Amino acid sequence: MERIYAPWRIEWVERDENPIDGCPFCALPSYEDAREARIVARSDHNYVLLNNAPYNPGHVMVIPDEHLENYAALDDETLLDHARLKRAAIDATRRDLDPEGFNTGMNLGGDAAGGSVDHVHGHVVPRWNGDTNFMPVVGDAKVIVEGLERTYDHLHAAFAEDPDAVDTGDLEAGDPVRLSFE
Ligand SMILES: [Zn+2]
């Protein structure tokens, strides 16, 4: 049987400790502490969120601030900003984790495509030769959270080195790295 590779089927974004009402991708940017929200970087119209259920370490999502269900509804400015932030996410992950490859993709169209959140978002998943699904290997919620916090701190530092970073963001104060592509 041929195996279909689709890491973005794993989209658990809920927080056990503080369940989110409504759309999590609309709620998370309003958190005062970006580290708690796991928003590592942002640009004018989009932000980068660590996936709570990473397929691999460094699995992030690039998400427009505006709640839109259809990719076609993104205006040109947001679309270009989204593409540039995705490029910055790939660069930062490369600097931090030195993966051997990447998968990037989107689930559009709800259940049929395996999407669990109807707010448009693009996945960036670093890949290594011979990697397997990270979750069953780790399998312990506490270990996953510690791993995410470590990944957050490392990626935050890697984003701060981006040539488009206009504010490197105070990690302790809970500020994401700010990028501007103007
Ligand atoms: Zn939303």
Q: Could you name the key traits of this structure?
A:
182 residues; alpha+beta; HIT family, subunit A; 7-stranded mixed β-sheet; globular; binds zinc ion
Protein model, in words:
It contains 5 helices and 7 strands; from the N terminus they run ααβββαββααββ. By secondary structure, the chain is of the alpha+beta class. The chain has a single domain (about 25-165), classed as HIT family, subunit A (2-Layer Sandwich), CATH 3.30.428.10. A hairpin with a 3-residue loop joins β1 (about 40) and β2 (about 45-50). α3 (about 75-95) packs across α5. The N and C termini lie far apart (about 50 Å). Mean pLDDT is about 85; it is low at about 1-10. The structure holds zinc ion (ZN). Zinc ion binds near residues 25, 67 and 119.
Quickly count the domains. Answer: 1
Shape designation: globular
Strand coverage percent: 15-25%
Fraction of residues in helix: 25-40%
Q: Which CATH C-level class is it?
A: Alpha Beta
CATH topology: HIT family, subunit A
Mean pLDDT: 84
Strand order of the largest sheet: 4-5-3-2-1-7-6
Unreliable sequence segments: 1-12
Order of helices and strands: HHEEEHEEHHEE
Bound small molecules, deduplicated: zinc ion
How many DSSP-defined strands? 7
Q: Which second-level CATH architecture applies?
A: 2-Layer Sandwich
* Rg over C-alpha atoms, rounded to the nearest angstrom: 15 Å
N/C terminus separation: 48 Å
Helix/strand/pairing category? alpha+beta
Helix count, per DSSP?
A: 5
Full CATH superfamily name: HIT-like
The biggest beta sheet is recorded as:
7 strands, mixed
